[in-house]
């Protein structure tokens, strides 16, 4: 730099040659101007935090190093854990004493920053929230409350859940009861076609459940007229005569096909005839 060039403060224009200065955004300032323009005010003492001081900040608030203290016990918080409460900074001991919850198991304070569990207004240290049955920490796994205890899902199923009599696994939701035995809905099936029976009409034979269709096909009497099953379970009306059965709509004269329901009829070997056709013979 030649003797004719000037090196001045960007703000007050005083020469900075041989003086202490501060650069900001590639621009030089004397220390006085820099402090007036850019330094933050301390939250503790309200004085500017000068160039020769450390500026400690938390959430856009600033402190002198010596002012960064617990609002209750005044101990320094520099390089120490702390907690914030309603714009106040507190050491962990003061915060825990005044605001932290107590562990429902060990009754000790749950310190700020430590891992904890909360449920219905109660708090636990993570290592104190245990399954009532296996006594292992539940952590972030699912759990089920029962009476005054808390259970991990496997222990709850072993101790309290019904077991499906078909697959032998726990029934955790829903389920159906048949002959005083529990079943998963998806396990309660027709013994014939394996169709799900939950929510459907069904019947049983020898303690086995059947859908109406399978039961009719397997066990219902057959109509002499159409040879199809006659299922009283489905509400079908039928006619019975000499150990033979007909659907009501199938009980007709062999020759003229007139319905014989409620009318007199004649028999000719295994056939049935109306009285008119019978006389003609």
Automatic annotation (TrEMBL):
Q: Which controlled-vocabulary keywords does the entry list?
A: LIM domain, Metal-binding, Nucleus, Repeat, Zinc, Zinc-finger
Question: Which one of the record's GO molecular function terms can you name?
Answer: zinc ion binding
InterPro entries in UniProt? LIM_FHL1/2/3/5_N (IPR056807), Znf_LIM (IPR001781)
Keyword Nucleus (UniProt): yes
Kindly give the SMART domains that the UniProt entry links to this protein: LIM (SM00132)
Q: Where is the LIM zinc-binding domain?
A: 40-100, 101-162, 221-281
User: In which compartments does the protein localize?
Assistant: Nucleus
Does the record bear Repeat in its keywords?
Answer: yes
Q: From which domain of life does this come?
A: Eukaryota
What GO CC annotations are associated with the protein?
A: nucleus; Z disc
The protein's name is Four and a half LIM domains 5
User: Which organism is the protein's source?
Assistant: Kryptolebias marmoratus
